[in-house]
Write a structure and sequence with these properties.
Bound molecules: ribose-5-phosphate
Number of strands: 15
Shape: globular
Strand content: 25-35%
Mean pLDDT: 97
Distance between the termini: 12 Å
Number of helices: 8
Largest sheet: 7 strands, mixed
């Protein structure tokens, strides 16, 4: 038998997937002991079953990761037949290089923890920049799904045909350009210089008539929001009609949503890989299809 088990960060998404795929849904009961340690209990026996453990690694990336690893190992100890980690947002992927001497390349260690606990991994738009594919990180089968078609459908439904799609930095072409191509919109990719987690500089493409244009900026992640905020500001200076921000993973840390609204973003939309008030694009169908 197959079971979809919702962990702390992804209960709603897991329920939707179970309904779409007509697979039994169950919970991993989770609470914290007074000292902060996690208590985990499978609400339904997992013995002999294929279990899909659904857990996004945000919010609280460190505890979420530990709970997923403990759940996977616990399921194995209780006799589960196959353990698939469905991790809509895979944290730590941006720590993919030693930028300064002594830095730990955390993405590698996150991958080691997961591959030693799971049989397979399914994730959505992982931040692949210095890694070309998940197989460079994981020795277990690791499937990358992409939200681009769902994002494209959303834009097609909500925005006029002449809306210009912007990728705020060189890496964002994987989302911005692909989405624009799917719905035959114009796409422009900017360049970004990041001097720290909270300081970015966006270089806009000159020689384009921005005035009066409706704009959608697309990126994989909005974290502190600085990438989007600086892009919105640059575009507003050029008198565009309206700027909207769309991302796959709406981390929205440190008041990012408020900062974006203040900078003049007309709307901020994300996919439901992470619980967020900005979630408007449902990926439960996309992920459910992959549960074979
Ligand atoms: C990094 O290159 C990603 O694609 C995003 O642009 C980045 O994570 C956004 O971070 P923030 O919102 O903190 O600028």
């Amino acid at each position: 038998m197959k079971m979809i088990i919702g962990l702390r960060n992804s209960i709603d998404l897991a329920k939707k997937m179970a309904k779409k795929k007509k697979i039994a849904f169950s919970l991993l009961e989770t609470r914290n002991f007074p000292d902060g340690e996690s208590y985990l209990r499978f609400a339904t026996p997992v013995k002999g079953n294929t279990v899909y453990l659904v857990q996004s690694l945000h919010p609280d990336p460190n505890n979420s990761l530990i709970e997923l690893v403990f759940a996977a190992r616990g399921a194995r100890a209780q006799g589960a037949k196959r353990i698939v980690g469905v991790v809509p947002y895979l944290a730590y992927m941006r720590q993919d290089k030693r930028f300064k001497d002594g830095e730990v390349i955390s993405s590698r260690h996150m991958a080691l923890l997961l591959e030693r606990s799971l049989d397979e991994l399914i994730t959505v738009d992982p931040h692949l920049h210095r890694y070309n594919s998940l197989s460079e990180l994981f020795s277990i089968p690791a499937k990358k799904l992409s939200a681009v078609e769902e994002v494209a459908k959303y834009i097609d439904k909500k925005f006029p045909k002449n809306t210009v799609i912007i990728g705020p930095d060189e890496e964002s072409f994987q989302w911005a350009l692909v989405v624009a191509t799917l719905i035959k919109h114009k796409a422009v990719i900017f360049t970004k210089r990041r001097s720290s987690s909270r300081k970015v500089n966006i270089k806009i493409k000159e020689g384009f008539d921005w005035k009066g244009k409706e704009i959608v900026i697309i990126d994989d992640i909005i974290s502190t929001g600085h990438t989007m905020v600086e892009t919105v500001k640059e575009l507003k200076r050029r008198k565009v009609k309206a700027v909207h921000c769309i991302c796959v993973h709406g981390i929205l840390a440190e008041g990012a949503l408020k900062k974006l609204k203040k900078a003049g973003a007309k709307s901020v939309v994300s996919c439901n890989t992470i619980p967020s008030p900005t979630n408007k694009i449902d990926l439960s169908g996309l992920i459910a299809k992959e549960l074979r």
